[in-house]
Design brief:
Oligomer: single chain
Number of helices: 16
Number of domains: 2
Low-confidence stretches: none
Number of strands: 17
Bound molecules: 3-phosphoglyceric acid
Amino acid sequence: MKLPFKTLDEVEYEGKRVLIRVDINCSLDPETKEIINDSRIRAMTPTLEELKKSRVVLMAHQGRPGSNDFTSLKPHTEILRKLGYNASFVDDIFGEKAKEAIKKVKVGEILVLQNVRMFEGEMKKAPVDEVAQEPIVQELYPLFDLFVNDAFGAAHRSQASIVGFTKYLPSVAGRVMEKEVRTLTEILSTEYHPWVLVLGGSKVPDKVKIIERLLEIGRADNVLLGGLIGNLFLIAAGKIPDDYGTPIKEFEEILPLAKELLKKYSDVIMLPIDASVEEEEDRVECSLDDIAGRPFFDIGPNTAEEFSNIIRNARVAFANGPMGFFEKDAFKHGTVEVLKAIADCECITVVGGGHVSAMAEAMDLVSKITHISTGGGATMGFMTGEKLPLVEALEDAAKRMK
Ligand code: 3PG
């Protein structure tokens, strides 16, 4: 398959100063903030292996301002060291401290810069030409010979560190990016049905738009919803009180679209039919009518069974986001059952998003799933046929490199 961008196969990188943008956004323990799953770090090691004779600087994000997983990349650097890489960390992104450290990187060494989202301008989403003017790009690009983008998980974000450097540096895809685009393109070229989408977790506004697009293009035959996105649609259906929308970002703005989608696709969108709520730190299973203001932390057992049956009969099943507050053991059940059904399914299965992928790995199900994607929103965007900003930027860079 011909890729629309250049890869590491097409450039010289030995001895060169290489800036790599990776997506090593990891699941953290909500209390200790320790990394609980380092699969995204391990996933990008094939790229690091190939660049062992280069002078490598890594750029990445962890969480986003305001989220409880918004932290430093120092622990990520420790993991790289444990994996055998000669990695060091600098608590700076593009200031003098970072620039000095970058200049000192030797062949075989890896310097990890601080979380790029600690720079406010990184959160701006705009076309390449605009974000390329951000100081993070302007200050850093002259220090490098090559830009390698391996951040497939963030490919749907047109932000400075993702697309800005492609304007100034020869730019190619790393091995994660390459593998994701190849595999997902192959999977999407099949016309199998039923095509089942299982969505949970947060990042609700993004996910509602993805559901809208996938339904509009007729790709999904069933959309099974849990987690906060499930709550939004339950509120839209009038099945649980509006108060359950409080933790949902942009709740008021996104609710009308959820209502409209429910009306239009009532036979396709499947909502939880029962709940697991928390009471005095215990899991209590109940009907939706009975939740009585208690935290709704997981889909109920009847929902898990219904969803599992639909998944087992699918020809393509794609899952993204947990069905509940899986970080708490008592509320893992829904996500565990969905993953077991996906692993049992004799069909094409794709699991995306850090949380569910991490859980599939912990449950030892990886070999039973067709593709574990390192992307969440990026993978879903790709599946709707959306041209991802990163893919577009790498394509343009490839044309300039000819
Ligand atoms: C992800 O975890 O999906 C990626 O790292 C992108 O993160 P974001 O949704 O915060 O941009």
